[in-house]
Amino acid sequence: MLRLTPQAGREGEIVLVIDGWMTGANADLVEREVLRLSQSQTVSEVDLQGVRSIDRRGIAVLGRLISNGLEIRGGSSYVDLLLRQVVFPWQHICG
């Protein structure tokens, strides 16, 4: 199960809050939703506080989102570790 909730962020930007399992097709759904929201508003952050599980596909999606300028926050130490090892080995990711 996955729930995506757009919330108002700073200066009118959108924060996409993710709850549930960011695995398989759900990971692709996150990327599509960010792209959809970005067509009409600025999506500045993805909040991973409620993510219960993530797989390689989810990590790859987060890597692409980060590369496109999105900030990732609220991720667990485990998600941060995976992102650093797999995508960005030189920096701390989850704020």
Q: What would you say this structure looks like, in words?
A:
- The protein is of the alpha/beta class.
- The chain has one domain (2-86): STAS domain (Transcription Regulator spoIIAA, 2-Layer Sandwich).
- Helices cover 38% and strands 33% of the residues.
- It is built from 3 helices and 4 strands.
- Strands 1-2-3-4 form a 4-stranded mixed sheet.
- Strand 1 and strand 2 (14-22) form a beta hairpin.
- Helix 2 (56-67) packs across helix 3 (77-86).
- The termini are far apart.
- The mean pLDDT is 87.
Explain briefly what this protein structure is.
This protein is α/β, with parallel strands linked by helices and 95 residues long. It is built from three helices and four strands, in the order ββαβαβα.
Sum up the overall morphology in one term: globular
What CATH architecture label applies? Answer: 2-Layer Sandwich
Neighbour order of strands in the largest sheet: 1-2-3-4
Poorly predicted regions = none
Question: What name is given to the CATH topology?
Answer: Transcription Regulator spoIIAA
| Helical stretch tally | 3
The total domain count is: 1
What's the end-to-end separation, in Å?
24 Å
The helicity comes to 25-40%
Largest sheet: 4 strands, mixed
What is the string of helix and strand elements? Answer: EEHEHEH
Cα gyration radius (Å): 12 Å
| Portion in strands | 25-35%
CATH homology superfamily name: STAS domain
- Rounded mean pLDDT is 87
Q: Got a strand count? A: 4
